Amino acid sequence: xxxxxxxxxxxxxxxxxxxxxxxxxxxxxxxxxxxxxxxxxxxxxxxxxxxxxxxxxxxxxxxxxxxxxxxxxxxxxxxxxxxxxxxxxxxxxxxxxxxxxxxxxxxxxxxxxxxxxxxxxxxxxxxxxxxxxxxxxxxxxxxxxxxxxxxxxxxxxxxxxxxxxxxxxxxxxxxxxxxxxxxxxxx
Length: 187
Description:
There is one protein chain. By secondary structure, the protein is α+β, with helices and mostly antiparallel strands. It has one domain. It contains four helices and six strands, in the order βαβαββααββ. The chain has a four-stranded mixed beta sheet with strand order 2-6-1-5. A hairpin with a 5-residue loop joins strand 3 and strand 4. Helix 3 (103-115) packs antiparallel against helix 4 (124-148). The radius of gyration is 18 Å and the shape is globular.
């Protein structure tokens, strides 16, 4: 399965940003968790890379999405995409697989699914799936709260590169501007 994880770094160029990410995550994963870097978007929109290393997601994947504006830099459009990901509706990715229009309804749906679990004959996989949905709701709620406090790129599933999410490495990177690096993670 492929996941798109966004990594924010400060760098002096798009290629430096890609190198910074490659260096930071070099020890992450194994032969079953390989990765490649796709698009690299610069905050000023002047130094972008469509697809650095043959990743599944180059910058132009944003051109195909109806949920975000077609105008603006790829950085601004990526910010809009991340914000769209953390807002309603919520799609539960595991059983009971549902798209919920209201966040509280998502919590209720998972709670009801757990309450109806048959302790004698229920499939243990259902409990695992519920835990994954709860983790997703936890991550999204944290990102929503961060967004409400004015953080334009809220972290969620940070440092969990095998999940769709955002990791901010700007505190440990140097450079003139922020870049968003599209990490294609296969797990």
